[in-house]
Amino acid sequence: MNASKSRLLIAVLLACGAGTAATANAADTTTFDVTITITATCDVEAAAATDVDFGTVASSAVNIDSSGSLTVNCTPGTAYNIALNNGQNGIDADSRAMSDGTVQVPYQLYREAARGASDVWGSTIGTNTLAGTGDGANQAFPVYGRVPSASFPAGVYADVITATVIY
User: Fold this and answer.
1) 84/119 Cα distance (integer angstroms)
2) Is 71 in a helix, a strand, or coil?
3) How far apart are CA 136 and CA 69, in angstroms?
4) DSSP assignment, residue 86?
5) Cα dihedral: 9, 13, 15, 17 (round 10)
6) How far, in Å, are 106, 110, 120 from residue 94 at the CA level?
7) Residues β-bridged to residue 146
8) 62-118 pLDDT, tens per residue?
């Protein structure tokens, strides 16, 4: 092959980029964040709450027991406490009473079926609330009630309790 053909071949190869580092593709990179902020939440499911209804009893009845339930739903891993207030007529958790407008009938609400003094359900965190940890699903809790004595005038007695989930 003569020198001019060799030079022509080299020129063609260089023009096509064969054998040169200058023909590599250029690249550049960057990074970015992907974020989400999830806040803890807890709800007392109002539609799932059931009343504590002591029914109709004779005035001679004692230790009348009944139960209802509350349902809460909290973010997984969220610690919470369920508190019950004193009702419309109670000064504290130990003095709850149903009223007919003039007469009051004492009753109590409990966290446990044994209905012991240490089971009274109130609103003081660490003392008489019900503690739990959320799992992302509805969690149902029974509310146990007791009327110590029905020795009161005949009538229809009622009270309203507010349940609060604190998280």
Assistant:
1) 13
2) strand
3) 19
4) -
5) -170
6) 9, 11, 8
7) 65, 108
8) 999 999 999 999 999 999 999 999 999 999 999 999 999 999 999 999 999 999 999
Distance CA 85, CA 146 (A): 16
DSSP conformation class of 133:
E
Neighbouring C-alpha atoms within 13 Å toward the C-beta of 104: 12
d(CA 17, CA 160): 87
24 half-sphere exposure, CB direction, 13 A CA radius: 5
Partners of 97 in the beta sheet?
Answer: 106
Helices then strands, each counted (H, E), the chain: 1, 9
Rounded to the nearest 5°, which phi and psi values hold at 104? -120, 135
3-state helix, strand, coil in the chain (%, to 5): 15, 30, 50
How does pLDDT run across 124-142, given as a tens digit for each residue?
Answer: 999 999 999 999 999 999 9
State both tokens at 33.
């964040």
**Which residue reads 């503690």 in tokens?**
131
